[in-house]
Amino acid sequence: MVEDTAPTQREEDIIEAIYRNPHRDQGVTVSELCKALVLAKPTVSLMVKKLQEKGLVTREPYKKIFLTKQGTEKAKAILRRHEAIKEILIKSGTPEDIAELDACKMEHFLHTETLEALMNSLFDPKEKERHNKKQPI
């Protein structure tokens, strides 16, 4: 049986939290992730273990957690989606604080083609080009 290597929503949240941590180059602790995501240590530890198995993070037992190259690329992709969705919501009249909360949820399940269609209908070509320069969504 082949295990699904795509990260779950919660795993993506952990990848994103590691990437957003200002000290990510020195490593992030489980405690820092618990605080950032408001999750219990056992939950975060289990997710980190799964992310290790998927090759997205590295960690020595009871040490700091680092994103692998693959994990960093995944984190960047998640953030690009997040930023694009947030901008779409704001452009559609959603208050920024609500757009931020909704983008956090939508970044995980909005189909790429749907996001592209929304961008095509709401962004002028220069805005769309700016998003595409950040790399494809």
UniProtKB/TrEMBL annotation:
Keyword presence, Transcription: yes
Q: Which residues form the HTH dtxR-type domain?
A: 1-68
Q: Which SUPFAM superfamilies match?
A: Winged helix' DNA-binding domain
InterPro entries, per this entry?
DtxR_MntR_Metal-Reg, Fe_dep_repressor, Fe_dep_repressor_sf, HTH_DTXR, HTH_MarR-typ, Iron_dep_repressor, WH-like_DNA-bd_sf, WH_DNA-bd_sf
**Entry's Gene Ontology molecular function annotations:** DNA binding; DNA-binding transcription factor activity; protein dimerization activity; transition metal ion binding
Q: Please state what the protein is called.
A: Transcriptional regulator MntR
Q: Which domain of life is it from?
A: Bacteria
Keyword match DNA-binding: yes
| Record family assignment | Belongs to the DtxR/MntR family.
Q: Mind listing the UniProt keywords for this protein, alphabetically? A: DNA-binding, Transcription, Transcription regulation
Please tell me the species this chain comes from. Answer: Coprothermobacter proteolyticus (strain ATCC 35245 / DSM 5265 / OCM 4 / BT)
The role this protein plays is: In the presence of manganese, represses expression of mntH and mntS. Up-regulates expression of mntP.
